[in-house]
Amino acid sequence: MGKGMRAGKKPSATKGMGSMQKQMAQMQAMQRKMEELQEEINEKEVTATSGGGAVAVTVNGKKQIVRMEVKEEVVDPEDIEMLQDLIITAVNEALRQMEEISNAEMGKLTAGLGLPGMIG
Asked: In this structure, is residue 107 part of a structural domain?
């Protein structure tokens, strides 16, 4: 017989079930909070500009472009490449800002859980 075992006494199979159910309930609550937070993030919008405001791009929390404004003075048929660069710069900056917002919001929720890779 192993140490701590008494004759005729079987180890309890349900001993850890209460804490396991509690952990499952906590994980489900955390999942609901994460889903709610993701919905809130999806509703956010961020706008970035380039060329001193010549191009403005707005991105939502789903990382989709929802608006773009190009000022007439930067539309030069002789320099399409500059306009393309301004658009790319503004889009990339808006996406970067939204990613930063998303990571920060999710980081608040997952802080202290010790779960690597749970952000973003």
From this structure: yes
